[in-house]
Amino acid sequence: MQEEAIELLGRALDGGEGDAEILNARAGFLVSVGRNEEALADVSRAIRLDPLSSDLFMNRGNILRSLGRYDEAAHDYTQGLSLAPDDVSGWSVLAGVLNRLERYSDAVSAADRAIAIDASNETAWYHKGAAFFALGRFEEALSAYSQALGIYPNDQYPWTDRAMRLKAEGREEEAQKAREMAALIVVKKLNIRRCEKEIEKKKNAVRNNP
């Protein structure tokens, strides 16, 4: 189906200067079949046609991120957010990319922008916690991770049960999402325990070296 859509959209583009919306649509289908470099070329072409579209910059950032080109992805996310500063998911994704680049203070700032727009964005809290942990600010990391965990139910077992039921019904895509939710809750709990251990180490160090 995806390949047919790619071919159909390609025919719509034949012989013309191009259409940003069609190029962006084709890029989405190209990504879905793993043809990320071609998708990148399409979105870059779309941006040349419509340089004021925040969505196009965010989409190209997503492709660059999937290719591991984090510096370029951060640049595109920043450009997209300059055009749409209230894009909460954009700020959250940027925070994650900045963590990848070890720009932890910038990651905290980006996460804070997302949280200021929507304090229920658990991914932003998670990225903020990761940045604080990398900076050695363990109590702040613990607070951020706790906020992230509190947004969704903190019991992974209903999600694993749901995944099994969905798989038995042949609904594999939904089952995979349920498994991912369960895994995310486990990771959050592990991160909180890591923070608590580091905080305890610091307290012990102070007690042993008054």
Secondary structure blueprint with pairings:
Layout (H helix, E strand, L loop, with lengths): L1 H12 L6 H13 L3 H14 L4 H13 L3 H14 L4 H13 L3 H14 L4 H13 L3 H14 L5 H12 L3 H37 L2
Helix pairs in contact: 1-2, 2-3, 3-4, 4-5, 5-6, 6-7, 6-8, 7-8, 8-9, 9-11, 10-11
Quick overview of this protein structure:
With 210 residues, the chain is mainly alpha-helical.
Walk me through what this model shows.
This protein is mostly helical and 210 residues long. It has two domains: 1-65, Serine Threonine Protein Phosphatase 5, Tetratricopeptide repeat; 114-210, Serine Threonine Protein Phosphatase 5, Tetratricopeptide repeat, CATH 1.25.40. It has helices spanning 2-13, 20-32, 36-49, 54-66, 70-83, 88-100, 104-117, 122-134, 138-151, 157-168, 172-208. Helix 5 packs antiparallel against helix 6 (88-100), helix 6 runs parallel beside helix 8 and helix 9 (138-151) packs antiparallel against helix 11 (172-208). The termini are far apart.
